[in-house]
Amino acid sequence: MPRGGEKRDGGEGGAPRVGAAVRRRRRSLELTLADVAERSGLSSPFLSQIENDRARPSMRSLQRIADALDTTAVQLLAASDETRTVDVVRAGDDGGLRDGGPREGARVRPVVRGRHQVHALEFTGEHDADREFLHRNDELLYVADGAVEVEAEGRIHRLGRGDALLMSGGVRHRWRTVGPGARVLVVAVADHVELLEP
C-alpha cells in the first residue's frame, strides 16, 4: 500500500512535471532515492516514478520531497521543465544592444530569449577584453566570422572563422575581437542550472 498519501494515478491533474528538477537536486546533494525516501516518508518506487514523470506528487508530497532536499516546493516548481517553447529569433529582430564601448557598430544580440537552461549571445563588430568573466557552468565561444583572441587561465588562444573554444565552469577568461568584421556566438549553460557529474 502506498505510504504517506502517495498517489499512483498521477496526482493532481494539472500539476507540472517536476521529475527532472527533483532528480537534479537529489543528485547535486549526492543522495540516493532511498535517502530521500527515508527523509520524506515517501517510498522509493513512488519517488522514482516522480523523477521519471510517471507520477505527479500532490503539493503536500512535493513539499515533503522539497524538505528532504533542503529546498522548497516553489523552487522545485520554478526549476521544472514543464514549459517547453519553440521560439524563432530572426536575424533582423531588433533585440540587439549596443556594446556600450567606444567601438562604433559593435552590437550584442540575444539569440535565446527568456529564462532557459542556456544563454546565447551574438556579438558583431569590435569588442575589447575589458572585463574578466567567471561563470559557474560551461561556455562555448564560436567564431562565425573574423578573428578572436581569448585569454583563459592566463593562456592566449587565437581563433579564426569556424573555430570554437569550450571553457568549463570556473575558468576565468576574457576575449576580444581582432580586426573588423567579427561575428561571435557565445553559448553558456545558465548559472541557475545545476550540472551533474557523469
Automatic annotation (TrEMBL):
HTH cro/C1-type domain: which residues?
Answer: 22-76
The record's InterPro entries line, in alphabetical order, gives:
Cro/C1-type_HTH (IPR001387), Cupin_2 (IPR013096), Lambda_DNA-bd_dom_sf (IPR010982), RmlC-like_jellyroll (IPR014710), RmlC_Cupin_sf (IPR011051), TransReg_Diox_bact_type (IPR050807)
| Pfam family name, one | Cupin_2
Statement: the UniProt record of this protein carries the keyword Glycoprotein: no
Q: Print the keywords alphabetically.
A: DNA-binding
What are the boundaries of the region Disordered?
1-24
Q: Does the keyword DNA-binding apply?
A: yes
Gene3D superfamilies hit by this protein: Jelly Rolls (2.60.120.10), lambda repressor-like DNA-binding domains (1.10.260.40)
Q: Compositional bias of type Basic and acidic residues: which residue ranges?
A: 1-11
Lineage: superkingdom: Bacteria
Question: Per its UniProt record, what CDD domains does this chain match?
Answer: cupin_XRE_C, HTH_XRE
Q: Which protein, by its recorded name, is this?
A: Helix-turn-helix domain-containing protein
Q: Give the species.
A: Streptomyces bikiniensis
Q: Lineage in the entry?
A: Bacteria, Bacillati, Actinomycetota, Actinomycetes, Kitasatosporales
